[in-house]
Design brief:
The chain is an all-alpha fold. The chain contains 19 helices and no strands. Pfam families: MFS_1 (PF07690).
Length: 412
């Protein structure tokens, strides 16, 4: 049978709907990151308190991704996504009208995690329409919805300064979520090839498999690094280089663009050359670049280094999720939730690492050196895992292919 090209296969309206849902959800999920500098003018915070504030949405997203991953398998990704968008309205209304203290803002930040949990529905919705040879590109396009981060970093502080209120940003964010909900409802469709729901016992088996934890570790570094830096860099530029809130967010946007728009490239190149090969190069690059940032060079240099580091992390996100459907194709909804939750935990931990080390040492150098070391540890883990995969599955596909159990002809 002749293979179809990417654009001849799948369902393009659903792919675009998944992208839009992911995009607007990411925009809302990271709203507090760029706004943190302005919010601190109303609620003075220590470096650790700022780190906690921008980290809480990521923690909420990590927890709720497991819930949405479970729902995706049982009621389908489309209905799960619709529920997610409706629930996302709650923290937006709270942030717009009802926040009167820092503690209340912490609650809003945690509840914004439901937007970050969109990962567990958006990616399976797209993935289930495409065959294995197109998984990297399909997941990369849908996952490029993390470009919503760019919208927040570019416009949130400008809107807040224009209206003289950061609260109004939450109110205006209601408009795009409602518009996307309507579009998504009209055009998104569940794949007819959606796997049957699994039992809880079968879900538990995923946690017993070593590869589950390996992919969690990989994504904890790539996605955790991307979303953690996206949330924290505005604070970093404001504190380290004395930039005003808008300029600090603008430079953050530069770095975020790299991580967002190179994710599909990572997926595409992983389809062509193998996900493990791509990850080896990307972890190595990220480790070297983050170590270079630790020297706190001049502003133009640090922006360039962070742009390239975020590009490596963004492409790494695409590479990891080129691998996951190959290994766990029949449990993609659950595994997306599990691996995505691990990535979120990485994004939760990163601001805390930078904030606490800065508060205790007065410098960001130890924090970025720690991040570099973590990336290099992921590189070592990947090298060990690749040797294990090669020894276990080499006979199934020849020297050029590493095939997870149950799959054939899958290039890792």
């Amino acid at each position: 049978m002749e293979k179809k090209s990417f654009w001849q296969s799948g369902h393009r309206p659903t792919l675009f709907s998944a992208f839009l849902y992911f995009d607007v959800s990411f925009m809302i999920w990271v709203l507090i990151g760029p706004l943190a500098v302005i919010i601190a003018q109303d609620y003075p915070m220590t470096p650790v308190e700022k780190a906690n504030l921008v980290a809480l949405p990521v923690l909420g997203g990590s927890i709720l991704r497991l819930v949405l991953g479970y729902l995706t398998d049982y009621i389908g990704p489309k209905r799960t996504a619709q529920i997610g968008m409706i629930v996302t309205i709650v923290p937006l209304v709270m942030g717009w009208q009802f926040v009167k203290s820092l503690d209340q803002l912490y609650i809003v930040a945690l509840l914004l995690g439901v937007a970050g949990a969109s990962f567990a529905a958006a990616l399976p919705l797209a993935s289930q329409w495409y065959s294995k040879e197109h998984q990297g590109l399909a997941m990369g396009i849908a996952g490029a919805g993390n470009s919503g981060t760019v919208i927040s970093t570019l416009f949130a502080n400008r809107i807040a300064q224009h209206f003289g209120s950061w609260e109004v940003v939450f109110g205006l964010a209601l408009i795009p979520i409602v518009v996307v909900f309507i579009f998504f409802t009209l055009f998104a469709k569940n794949s007819p090839n959606r796997p049957a729901p699994r039992t809880l016992a079968q879900y538990g088996n995923a946690f017993k498999q070593r590869d589950t934890w390996i992919f969690c570790a990989f994504y904890c570094v790539t996605f955790g690094g991307f979303v953690g830096l996206s949330n924290y860099l505005t604070i970093f530029f404001n504190t380290q280089y004395g930039l005003d809130p808008v300029r600090a967010a603008d430079f953050t946007t530069t770095a975020v663009i790299a991580g967002s728009f190179f994710r599909p490239v990572g997926g595409y190149l992983s389809d062509k050359f193998g996900g493990t090969r791509m990850l080896i190069m990307l972890y190595c690059g990220a480790g070297i670049l983050l170590a270079s940032v630790a020297s706190m060079p001049a502003l133009p240099v640090v922006i360039t280094l962070l742009f390239l580091a975020m590009m490596c992390l963004g492409m790494g996100n695409g590479a990891v999720f080129q691998l996951v459907p190959q290994r766990f194709g029949n449990e993609i909804g659950l595994l997306t939730g599990i691996v995505g939750a691990a990535g979120g935990l990485g994004g939760y931990a990163l601001p805390l690492v930078l904030g606490r080390l800065y508060q205790s040492t007065g410098s960001y150098t130890p924090g970025f050196l720690t991040l570099s070391a973590i990336a290099l540890c992921a590189l070592i883990l990947l090298a060990v895992a690749q040797l294990s995969w090669r020894n276990k599955w080499l006979g199934k596909g020849g020297k050029a292919r590493l095939e997870p159990a149950g799959d054939t002809g899958v290039q890792l």
